[in-house]
Amino acid sequence: MIYIKYSGTIQNRNLIPHLEEELIEIAQISNWQYELIIENFNTLTSATRKGHINNFIYDNDIDDEDLLTLNSSDVFLEGIAMMIDSNSDPFRITFDKCGKLAMISFCTSDTIGFNKKLVVKKYEFLYYPYIKLYTNNAEKHIKVIKILEYLKKRYIKDLEVIDTSFYWNNRDEEELRVKMWKMIKDKKITL
Hints:
This protein has helices at about 15-30, 140-155, 165-170, 175-185; strands spanning about 1-5, 35-40, 45-50, 65-70, 75-85, 90-95, 105-110, 115-125, 130-135, 160-165. The protein contains four helices and ten strands; from the N terminus they run E-H-E-E-E-E-E-E-E-E-H-E-H-H. The radius of gyration is 18 Å and the shape is globular.
């Protein structure tokens, strides 16, 4: 499994619709499913504006240092999520109300008492969104990096990327393919 984590702030929130349009075009050309996301907890609404998938399910394997607890009035998220591979998490490019790349981690705990059920919901912002790639397809990994590279040039000048394959740092496609081959051989990645 390979992680790609990224953070940064869009130059201007007014650019988000343009960024979404470009990523929709990329998703359509690449035959990826996508969902435009707008979540506003201040008005207790969550809506999908348009897209091809209503709900993505992803694993919230997160680190405590990436968490920040906010009041519901501060929780707003908009952007796009693209499903690049059925064996991977969605690739989310979503922004908080200040234009910072973010995603929300939801935790729910159910407590059963005297014929009553108490449900506690907790949501936290992650300011280092990530994608976990479980694929042996180096081309999809390269596409994700190219999209991030484009976003850095056009929309998110301060974009920082952490790529556990180190492809973001060295752009060595052969080394990436060898790492993926070794992971498959060691059964740390699925076909």
